[in-house]
Amino acid sequence: MLSLRSLAGQVFLLQLAVAMLLVAAALVALVVQAQRDVMADARNRTLTVAQTFAHAPGTVAALESADPTAALQPPAEAAKRTTGVDAVIVYGLDGITLAHSDPRQVGKRVIGPYAAAATGRPFTSTFQGALGLSVVSAVPVRNPGGSVIAIVSVPVTVERVQHRVNQQLPVLVVGAGVALVVAAVGSALVSRRLRRQTHGLGPTEMTRMYEHHDAVLHAVREGVLIVGGDGRLLLANDEARRLLALPADAERRHITELGLDEDLAGLLASDRPATDEVYLAADRLLAVSKRLTAPHGPGGSVVTLRDTTELRALTGRAEVARERLQSLYDAGMRIGTTLDVKRTAEELAAVAVTRFADVATVDLLDPVLRGEETSAAPAGSTELRRSAVAGLDADRPLHPVGELMRPVPSNPVSVAMAEGRPVLVADLSASGAWQAQHPEGARRILDHGIHSMLAVPLRARGVVLGVVVYWRARGSPPFEDEDVSFAEELAARAAVCIDNARRYTREHSMAVALQHSLLPRALPQQSALEVAYRYLPAQSGVGGDWFDVIPLSGTRVALVVGDVVGHGLHAAATMGRLRTAVHNFAVLDMPVEELLGRLDELVAQIDAEEVSAPEHEQEVIAEPEQGVITGATCQYAVYDPTSGRLAVASAGHPGPAVVRPDGTVEFPRLSVSPPLGLGAGLPVETTELTVPENARLVLYTDGLIEDRTRDPDAGTAALRDALAGPPRTPEATCTAVMEAMLSDRPRDDIALLVARTRRLGPDQVAEWEVPRDPAAVAPVRTACARRLAEWGLEQVVFTAELILSELITNAVRYGAEPISVRLLRTEPDGSPDAGTLIFEVADGSSTSPRLRRAKVTDEGGRGLFLVARFAERWGTRYTATGKVIWAEQSLEHDATPEAEGLGDPLLDQWDDIAL
């Protein structure tokens, strides 16, 4: 660092010499100044002490007293001690000392320039006196009349003053030494930093480096400007001169005088920093960056210029590509959000507008909208239906949504579909093929400002589904070849979504058709209940909900609601299997718990078959992930109008609601068993209720009370509120419940069954106990004839007696006691000549009769054939104590068979036996 060869060493020595010189000069100046300050302090102090003593109270009285010296001497000595002066002297106008801090001087004549004080003017002076070279201040003492009666003099010797200066010299010298050390250390640090920054280079090397840097500055391909704080150009390299076309004498001239663009000149002349701001200079686009030199340097700024004309063009193309990639990404997120063909077409049109086209239309083949397959090569005259339009205002010059169009073969739309490629028409006004389709409509489109179109076929799996047409109107450039690839990619993505929606529509339609074919199309005629129903499939697809009303023997009616887990064809097909099974089991008059037990076994068997089936057979087109059933729920209830008893069993299904005639709503507590297929052979429990007449039984599936925004408890409470109130018909009840409970987009199927109960009155039922004696048949037959006569049914007495005689005889011969007979009459329409007559014979045996072919040699036993011939239906149901053989006879006039004309050969073919 001390080497004279380096710039840092030279700077260090120079700074050290300068620091020493400055410290020495400062030390001398401080000493001189200290002396001056001490002398000034001495003058001020002596004058102040003299004035204070002269004007002190008692000084005038002491002078006028008999012994002034005695009165003034003590204060004079005290004043000297307290003020630090050399003496306090009081003398008269005659120059005789009256008081002196040195008692030896009292009475002596004072020698000194005190004449001015005698005249009444105080003064301060330096002179040689008795004490040596001193600074003396004299102040006159005036009596009350204003006359000078004495003079007070206070001297301070110069020796005392010099002594005070000498006391300050060590401090000044030490301060100077510290300052010199600090200056040396600071110089060393500066030199060290300078040495590090200059890498120990000397002045020669620094000069050579500057020359090299200057050469480089002018050789770089980036313009550099240095602008002063006053807005004048201080430096411009060669590249800056070329980019800005600066004149040769540009330096030292103001920025505004260089002929630059106004915006660029404003930036260069301002004190605003900038980073890569683009400005126009002649035919170039310059990226300008500006940094201020303050506070790290003198006022001004450094500006760099880069030519971005070509880079801008490349960036523009890259930005367009990025925006289109982003548009494709957004299209993937926005197109195909639903499996609805029309909605998907609307999403495609909405995505294309504003980002790529001003107007977009989507035209699809009619089979696509219906979910059907289309031909791989559609003809040029293919009919298209406008499915979506986006970007048009109220004044629409294009075909509206829903209109059927038949483009001519020369139309760009037909060409695009026939050849399977995009067709670009940059200028519609010059396209005769496009205008030939509809000249008047083409004129309206051109008047609307639309000037360019791009038709792209929608292809998926090699099949053309339709076409999307992009339009541009005034204010937008016409379509170019670079736009075709983006349009194709957008159409390809949308076509896949449309094809998926088409396939889903097909499968959904098939599932809906299948489910509707499996659900009841009309409720059967019966007299026990007045029934209404509602069924609503889910928005996401057909499910496995079902309901049923099944008439049973003895005017009883079975009500069924069930729900197969899942949606789609598989759930609908499984629902059909279960509904058929319930029908078959119900025909056998099984108890409710036994029926659900058999149904549980059936579902478990179906599950096992699905699991063990080959993988290709488990595929389900609509929803392949649901190839295996995970269970089903079912609720089965049997209502008997003769007693008002309701037997209910549930397998994982929500219990029914009972609305009493007074409008109160109850949800009876049921013994709920596990869902079907999960019961593992466990027994099903039955709950029996007594339901009053005109009560409403409400059976439903869980889709009615459960929703994504509502839990089952809240749904049950809402259902209670919807059911409560004044009496309503089942149809009105269904309407009120659906209005109150239905959401905008139900996620699950909804099945609702409402049945209003009826009761058979005493005048519609007749019962007799029968002993096990063949002779007891005749009295019962006679009583039956009397009751039929009371009911006004004389026309059926013969057939009724015949049927009843055969049934009672069969029970007496082959059954066991107790034996009872019940006769029921139903009037569903309230007409005396309509309805059904039901015969029931109960006995204590569990064996059931059956028809068989009789032998020629048999003497009898053809009674059951007669029953089957004259009754509409007959059968056997088991009870807890035995069985009941029943038969039904219609009361319609044309439904009663005649007894005459029965051929003996036909009767001889059958016999009835007891098993």
State the gist of this model.
The protein is an alpha+beta fold and 915 residues long. Residues 530-757 form the PPM-type phosphatase domain.
Topology:
Elements: H1 7-54, H2 59-63, H3 68-83, E1 89-92, E2 97-100, H4 115-118, E3 123-129, E4 132-142, E5 148-157, H5 158-198, H6 203-219, E6 223-228, E7 233-236, H7 238-244, H8 262-269, E8 274-281, E9 284-292, E10 300-307, H9 309-334, H10 341-352, E11 359-365, H11 366-369, E12 384-390, E13 404-405, H12 412-419, E14 423-425, H13 432-435, H14 439-447, E15 450-460, E16 463-473, H15 481-518, E17 529-536, E18 543-551, E19 557-567, H16 569-587, H17 592-612, E20 632-640, E21 645-651, E22 657-659, E23 665-666, E24 672-673, E25 687-690, E26 696-700, H18 712-723, H19 730-741, E27 750-757, E28 765-770, H20 777-790, H21 797-814, E29 819-826, E30 836-843, E31 849-853, H22 863-870, E32 873-878, E33 883-890, H23 904-907, E34 910-914
Parallel strand pairs: 21-24
Antiparallel strand pairs: 1-2, 1-5, 3-4, 4-5, 6-7, 6-10, 8-9, 9-10, 11-12, 11-16, 12-13, 14-15, 15-16, 17-27, 18-19, 19-20, 20-21, 21-25, 22-23, 22-26, 26-27, 28-29, 29-30, 30-33, 31-34, 32-33
Describe the structure.
With 915 residues, the chain is of the alpha+beta class. It has five domains: 10-165, PAS domain (Beta-Lactamase); 220-312, PAS domain (Beta-Lactamase, 2-Layer Sandwich); 319-509, Beta-Lactamase, CATH 3.30.450.40; 519-607 and 629-757, 4-Layer Sandwich (Phosphatase 2c, domain 1), CATH 3.60.40.10; 765-909, Heat Shock Protein 90, CATH 3.30.565.10. It has 23 helices and 34 strands. The longest helix has 48 residues, at 7-54. The chain is elongated. The chain crosses the membrane at residues 169-190.
